[in-house]
Amino acid sequence: MRIVQAAMSALGAVDRSGAGGATRPEAGERRAAGRPLVIVVGNPNVGKTTLFNRLAGARGRVGNYPGITVERRPGTLRLGGAGEDVELLDLPGCYSLSARSAEEQIAINAVLGLAGNPAPTLALVVVDAGQLIRNLYLVLQLVELEVPLVIALNMIDEVEDEPPSAAAIARIFGVPVVPTSARQGVGLDALAACLREQVSRPPRGRVAIDYPPALERDLARVAAALPPALRASPGRDRGLALWALMSVDEHDELRDVDPDLRAACLAVRRDAGARDLDDEVIATRYAFLDRHASVLHARVDQHLRKRAASERIDRVLLHPVWGFAVFVLVMLVLFQALFSWANPAITQVERATGWLQEQMAAHLPEGLLSDLLREGVVGGVGNVVVFLPQILLLFFFISLLEDSGYMARIAFLMDRIMKALGLHGRAFVPMLSGFACAVPAILATRTMERQRDRLLTMMVIPLMTCSARLPVYTLIIAALFPPAVGWVPVQGLLMVAMYLFSIVVTLAAAAVLGRTVIRGEHAPPILELPPYRLPDPRSTLRMMLERAGVFLREAGTMILVCTVVLWALLSFPRPSMPPAGEPTEAARQHALAESYGGRLGRAIEPALAPLGFDWKIGVGIIGAFAAREVFVSTLGLVYGVGEQDDEAIPLRQRIHEERRPDGRPVYTPLVGLSLMVFFALACQCMSTLAVTRRETHGWRWPAFMFVYMAALAWAASFLVYQGGRLLGL
Asked: For residue range 329-341, what is the model confidence (pLDDT) as tens digits?
C-alpha cells in the first residue's frame, strides 16, 4: 500500500473543480471584509465535507470514494458574539499539493493565496484517525510551506480501541490537534474554540526533514529561480521549490508558471539522469513519518489487527475471480430488489394516476382542455413519476455502496481491465458517477491530470447506464419478460445484464477511441482504497431526498413541457370525424398516424424498421432526446391519446397487449431487447451534449459524441434484432 500511497502523492492526485483551469474565486466565495478566512483541506474520504457541513450548516454531498467533492464550497462559521464569524472555504480533497494540470493548481493557489485568491488566515486540515500516516503526508507539506494550520483528528469514533495520540501529533508538527467525529458531532465545540483562539494568532508548525544532499542542491537551484513575488522565508522557499520540482515536467498542463522557474525545474530533472526525484522526495517524507509512527498510536497492536482484518476482506473482494463473482452477485440482488421491493409502490402510483384520469374523464367536459390535462399532463407525467420508487431504491443502494467503501473496491477491480485498455484508472470514479447522471460525471473528469484522459473519459461516460435509462428498462422488462422462470430471476438478471453491457461497451469504446481519435500519453492509474465504514443513515437519506427532488423537478418542468409539446404533436391536426364505418380504435390509429407527430414518426420509420421499431417508437425516440424519461411519457401519450375508456390501463399492460394490423404483437422480447440496446448506446440527452460543449469549449466533440453513439446504437440494435430473427426468436 505504501507504493500506491507514494504514487498518489507523487502525481498529486487532487480532486478539484473549475473549467478551463480557472483559479480565481467565485463571487460568492469572496472574503467578507474583516473576517478571518479558514480553508478546509484534507484527503478524500476523511469526512472533510461532513465536518464542513457541521461547522457551516451546509449540505454538501458525502461519500466514501474519491471524486465526490469537485467544487469549492464557501460557508460561515459562527463563533458567537459580534464580529466573530469566520469565513470557511471547503476545498476539493487532495492527497498532495503537487499538481500537473491547470485545475490542480486550485489547491496550491488557495493554500498560498495566489492567482487572485485571498490569503487564508488559517488552514483546517482534516485527517482520518484510522489512516494517519497517509493523511499526515499532506500535513507535512503544509508545514514545509509554513502555512498556519490546525489539525482536526477526525473519525476518532472509528478507532476507539486504538486511538492515535493527539498530543504526540501536536509535538511532532508544533500545531494544535483536536480529536473529532464529524458524523457523531463529537469534538465540534472544542474545534470551534480552538479556531476562535488560533485565528487571532495563527500557529506555524515546524519540522526538520533532512533530504539527500544531492536533492538539497537541486532544491537550492529551483528556489533561486522563484519569482520575487513568491519569495519569503528560506523555509517557505524550499517548500515552494519542492512543489515546483514535483509538479513541473515535460508533460504537465500547468499555466502561468514563471518561465525561469519552469526552465530550472526541467534542467534539474534533465541533470538528475537516472535519479527518480519524485521517489527521493516521497521516500524521505515517509521515512520521517515512519520514524514517528510508534508514538502516534497508543495501542499499535490493535491498530495492526484492525488493518489485518480489512486486508483479509480485501483478499476476497479484490480477487480477480471471486471479486468479480461477488460484484455480480451484489448487482443481481440490487436489481432484483428494484423490481420486487418497488413493485407494490409502483402499482399504487399507477392506480393513483389511473384513478385521477378516470375522475377527470367523469367530471370534466369533453374537449381539448380535458384531453390535455388527462392525457398530456396526468398521463404523460404520471407514467414517469411511477418509477420514483425504483429510483429511490437505486440511490439507496448506491449510497450504501459508496459510504461502506465497497464502491472503491469495484473501481479497483475494473482498473485491472482499464489499465489494459489504456484508460486512466481514476476515470472509473466519474464513470461510476455516470450510473447516476452523465452531467455531474462529466464535470467530475476535472479530477484527472491529463487533457487526453479527461477528453477520452468524457466521450465514453454517456455509455454508462444512467438513472434516466432506468424507467425505460423497467417498462420494457416488466411488460415483456416474466419476473422469474423457476428459480431464475429473469427480470433482475436482465437489468444486471444491461448494466454490465454498458460497462463492457464503455471500456471497449475507450480502447478504440484511445488508439484512434484520441491518442496520447496517459498517467499511470491511481486509486485509493478507503477503510470499510458503516454507512451514515443521514447521508443516505439526504442523497435519496436530493435525487427524488431532482427527479420530481424534472418531471414537473422539462418532462412536463416535453410531454405537452408531444401531446400537441400527436393531437393535431384534429380530424373532423372518422371515416364512415371505421371502428373506434381504427379511427384513433388513423388520427394518430395523420397527426404531426405521426407524420414525423412515419418519416423516420424506414430507418428504424430494421431494428424492429415502428413509427410510434420513433416518436418516443425523438422525444427522448430532451430527456430519456420522456420516452416513457411519449408512449403513454401514443397509447392514451383519444382513449375514452372508463378504466385507465397501465402503460406496461398496453405495451404487452399492443398488436399489429395482422394480429402479431408489436412488442416481443426480441423487440424489447433491441430497444434496450438502442437506449443503452444512443446519446439521447440534450443536457449531456451541452455540458460536454462547455467542458471542451466548442461543438466539435459534442457533435462527435452524438454521431458515434447514434451510429453505434443503430448498428448494435440492428445486429440484435436481425440476428435474433435469423435464430428464430
From this structure: 888 888 778 778 8
